[in-house]
Amino acid sequence: MRIVTLAHSYPRWDGDVAGAFIERLVLALRQRSHRVSVIVPADKGQGGTIEHKGVPITRVRYAPAQLEVLAYSGRMREAVASFRGIASFATLVLAQTWATTQEVHSDRVDLIHAHWWLPGGITSWLAAFVGHRPYVLTLHGTDVAILEKSSTARRLARAVMRKASAITAVSSFLAERAAHVAGIESSQILVQPMPLDVELYSTTSSGGAGIVTVGRLVQQKRVALLLEAVARLHKSGTAVPLTVVGDGPERRSLEYHATQLGIHETTRFVGSVEPEQIPAAIGDADVFVFPAHDEGLGLAVAEALMLGVPVVAAKEGGGVADLVPASGAGRLIDGVTADKLAEAIQEVLRDASSRSAAAEHGAGLKRRLAPDAAAQVFEAVYASVAQRARDAGA
């Protein structure tokens, strides 16, 4: 099958993390004998078409080099709030649409797979009117979050989603939110996470390193609650160490908070680490704690479980609820407080069976999140979409 993949990020060099999960899917599809090309925005003037790992990649120029900052910088949501950002976004969509229609007309393309409803979904929607090719839309999280803040975005997203031949989302949480916006049943959206490099998680934690959490240090992650829970554990006689992996605007205040709580001597803030270092950073944790709310999926949770580390997380964690069982390998807390976190952590630490349960649950996640497994799911989606397109044209 001939597929065009649209996204707003894709690795620019070997080891680049931008859109790495999309590359994993693309390469897995290629291994299954599908012909896949990729169309993404240029990055600060770095445009043109190359072939890398057997995949043709077109990086579309859409503005002067100094203004090509919508992708890769994580600033797209900020950019579209300004007039200049909106203008750049509009030219990006038009440039991607032109490149997409040119590719559709120059090759026997079966369908388009757009990641994120903007700009990729909008591009596919516009290209469908010209190139008459069906498109599959995948929602990842940040694109759905935008819908709650803009009525204009909601109207546009509705049009994009309703014309899509199939919609997937990386979690049930995102599927339900997106379905509500589009006015469709959430059952019409297939839940399928993006693939992970599961080979990185071939070891199993043996415990002994205390509590670990991983994530960008922003208020959404609620690391302050975790610090307070650890302080309560210390007061009750469980002086378990805490390792915080990640960086962000809240780091300094969190470090001060740990000092005020009297746990600074047993709390380490190690900063950001490269993706391939995550297994070592989680290492031999006794329990992984993730109190964040409204996560698109929460890949750090999947990573911990694949290493055989039991997880304590919040029910309101969004996509996390797809990954963490309510008992055994994990605990899902309803209405997170420091006391509830401390209680759940203590429960896991005392449950000798939680580690073996986590290892078993993590093995299942490895099978589900392996690139070839994800590729098989999307392969079936593509086949269904292509068949419906053929039937409609018959």
Outline:
The protein is an alpha/beta fold and 394 residues long. Helix content is 44%, strand content 16%.
Q: How would you describe this protein?
A:
By secondary structure, this protein is α/β, with parallel strands linked by helices. The chain has two domains: 2-195 and 370-393, Rossmann fold (3-Layer(aba) Sandwich); 198-369, Glycogen Phosphorylase B (Rossmann fold, 3-Layer(aba) Sandwich), CATH 3.40.50. The chain is 44% helix and 16% strand. The strands form two sheets. An eight-stranded mixed β-sheet has the order 3-4-2-1-5-6-7-8, sandwiched between helices. A six-stranded parallel β-sheet has the order 11-10-9-12-13-14, with helices on both faces. The radius of gyration is 22 Å and the shape is globular. The protein starts with a strand and ends with a helix. 46% of the residues are buried.
Portion in beta strands:
15-25%
Shape: globular
Q: Please, what is the CATH homologous superfamily of the largest domain?
A: Glycogen Phosphorylase B
| Mean pLDDT metric | 93
CATH architecture of the largest domain: 3-Layer(aba) Sandwich
Q: Could you estimate the helical fraction of the residues in percent?
A: 40-55%
User: Which parts are unreliable, with pLDDT below 50 for 5 consecutive residues or more?
Assistant: none
Class computed from helices, strands and strand pairing: alpha/beta
CATH class of the largest domain: Alpha Beta
Largest sheet: 8 strands, mixed
Overall number of structural domains: 2
Along the chain, the helix and strand elements come as EHEEEHHEHEHHEHEEHEHEHEHEEHHH
What order do the strands of the largest sheet run in, or round the barrel if closed? 3-4-2-1-5-6-7-8
CATH topology of the largest domain: Rossmann fold
Q: Tally of extended strands?
A: 14
Count of helical segments?
Answer: 14
